[in-house]
Specification:
The chain is an alpha/beta fold and about 375 residues long. A hairpin with a 5-residue loop joins strand 1 and strand 2. The N and C termini lie far apart (about 75 Å).
Length: about 375
């Protein structure tokens, strides 16, 4: 072998070694952003232990790249707004996806449309399909006790999220969720800012309604679901009770003591309560015009005060259906107070409040058109629920 051949072989060997280093580096780079790590195998320095809403201690990776959400429908929207992106969300419930498409979420964070929804439906969960998504962590509804065991068996760090731990106090629940996320994602932490804004909003409302006489307090009815077959409201143990209490109103259905969304009522009860204001959630396609016209179920609202005065409103749909805790909760509370007591809150510019809130807390600049759509959702807002 002459010197030229030896030199050529040396150059070739050098190129091969360099190529190996480059390819290896690319794989390492890819893995650092897309690989599902086994949390149990991670050193303690790369994990943190948090306490979830079931008071379980859960060890999760410090660096979370892939997130799945199961059963807790508002949570994908809260994660997206909190993180300023939906890129980490690889799986979510179909009901969350339908709200994202109907509201502003998919417009603000279009990457959320890539999330898989096939692994879960309502109370059902396919653990094999979830495993395929390789989540670093799954957030799930605390009410699904069997899922806790399933996640543990699959080796997936699972964080229980509760919508009822704080007695359906929508504002406190939202604050506690943000507090937990701030602990898990310290680079996006904003628990103090969110809590301060929530308190400021709540105090502002309380200062204006605290001197209302008992006879001046409006009677409010929530229509959680309203169709030809049934009327479901919020009794004492559901979100509607908190909304009423927080704005100094009376829950027309407070005497209904069954928990959650099982408060089925009749028109006879509504006639007897004769509410001053009616709010329709986005968990039902019913619209105010359906109430005024008596079109659904042939039910007449002609003698109900709220219908006579035109005080029937569809609740907002921003990042999620606003009846539940969510990123829109503080401004929803202000909007609701203004609808119940327009004279007490006539100086409040909701559009400005919403724009400032999203800009200051989350760095999201909403347009006038987006805010307008947020406060005028249609019947399609309930699709997929």
């Amino acid at each position: 072998m002459d010197r030229r051949e030896a030199g050529a072989m040396k150059k070739t060997s050098t190129l091969i070694i360099l190529l190996v280093f480059v390819v290896t580096g690319l794989f390492l780079f890819k893995d650092s952003f897309g690989k599902k790590e086994d949390t149990a195998k991670l050193p303690p320095s790369e994990t943190i232990t948090i306490v979830d809403n079931l008071d379980n201690k859960v060890t999760v990776p410090k660096k979370i790249y892939r997130i799945a959400v199961a059963g807790i429908f508002p949570f994908p929207s809260i994660l997206s707004v909190f993180l300023g992106s939906a890129e980490k969300i690889v799986g979510m419930p179909p009901a969350s996806m339908s709200a994202a498409k109907a509201g502003l979420l998919a417009e603000l964070f279009p990457e959320i449309l890539k999330a898989d929804t096939s692994f879960t439906s309502g109370e059902d969960l396919n653990i094999e399909e979830l495993i395929k998504l390789k989540p670093d962590v799954v957030f799930y509804s605390s009410g699904n006790g069997e899922w806790t065991k399933m996640f543990a068996g699959a080796g997936i760090p699972a964080v229980a999220i509760s919508p009822r731990k704080w007695d359906y106090d929508v504002l406190e629940t939202y604050d506690k969720w943000i507090e937990l996320l701030s602990e898990m994602f310290p680079e996006s932490a904003k628990a103090k800012q969110v809590s301060a804004y929530s308190k400021e909003t709540y105090d502002k409302i309380q200062n204006r309604v605290k001197n209302l006489k008992e006879s001046e307090r409006k009677k409010v009815l929530f229509l959680f679901q309203y169709d030809d077959q049934k009327i479901v409201t919020s009794g004492k143990h559901f979100f509607g009770q908190y909304w009423c209490d927080a704005v100094g109103a009376k829950n027309a259905a407070e005497e209904i003591t069954v928990d959650n969304a099982n408060a089925k009522i009749t028109m006879e009860q509504i006639y007897n309560w004769n509410p001053d204001v009616v709010f329709i959630t986005n968990f039902t396609p019913a619209m105010p015009d359906d109430i005024y016209s008596g079109k659904i179920g042939g039910r007449s609202w002609n003698n109900v005060k709220a219908a006579k005065t035109g005080d029937v409103y569809k609740m907002p749909l921003g990042s999620y259906r606003s009846y539940t805790p969510g990123a829109d909760t503080p401004v929803t509370l202000l909007w609701l107070a203004q609808k119940v007591y327009p004279e007490l809150f006539k100086d409040i510019n909701i559009e400005k409040e919403v724009k400032d809130y999203y800009s200051k807390l989350y760095g999201i600049e909403l347009t006038k058109e987006q805010i307008k759509r947020m406060y005028s959702p249609g019947a399609k807002a309930a699709e997929g629920f």
